[in-house]
Amino acid sequence: xxxxxxxxxxxxxxxxxxxxxxxxxxxxxxxxxxxxxxxxxxxxxxxxxxxxxxxxxxxxxxxxxxxxxxxxxxxxxxxxxxxxxxxxxxxxxxxxxxxxxxxxxxxxxxxxxxxxxxxxxxxxxxxxxxxxxxxxxxxxxxxxxxxxxxxxxxxxxxxxxxxxxxxxxxxxxxxxxxxxxxxxxxxxxxxxxxxxxxxxxxxxxxxxxxxxxxxxxxxxxxxxxxxxxxxxxxxxxxxxxxxxxxxxxxxxxxxxxxxxxxxxxxxxxxxxxxxxxxxxxxxxxxxxxxxx
Length: 292
What we know:
alpha/beta
């Protein structure tokens, strides 16, 4: 039975006015070699948390990874699930070039294929894949509902999708860090105004439902770091600062922040990383669903 084409009927329900009706969007973190390296570090840093509940049936599987970027998550997927092959799609030539260079061996073995294309128009056949993995993609796109509807199109009936996205509303740093809060507001506001959604995790359940998925489950992946885990707290403080700094070139260019504010932010995070009473709390949200 042929699947109903959900893509045409799915409306864009969330995002900034600028994003509506536009395919263009900006990647807040840029495409520098430093940023590409950070993406590999990020994938490894959050591997245990992101992959804890991810599983697919045994046997040879063809898995879709839209928004694959530099192939950092692809590397983890193939290592953790030796039975699967990947179809990786990304719109950025810079990211794909890095991914193809990194995955030369996997490409020769036929375990991964890279495609240049938009997530709203995947260059793949209908009902051709056994599952999908989406990670930190939907927060950056202006039409997340259309992306999920398109993913639904290429999945076989019964195929499972996993989506992991940020939820930047759940953030707390102590000691009180006013410069960080100012910077974080501009960080989130810039992403919103350029077509993204820094609170995407909270929308996953509704978006998956609109795209035709069933058996939807969501869970919060949260990090509560305090004096009980001092080593992990320091590691997360240092890593989170890197995340914030990765947006500095774009935020400076658009005059949302100043060099002096960035300096204050760094000082607050250095203090937090070394303060025995500091607290860091932030979260992501992961959803799973089935294409029926």
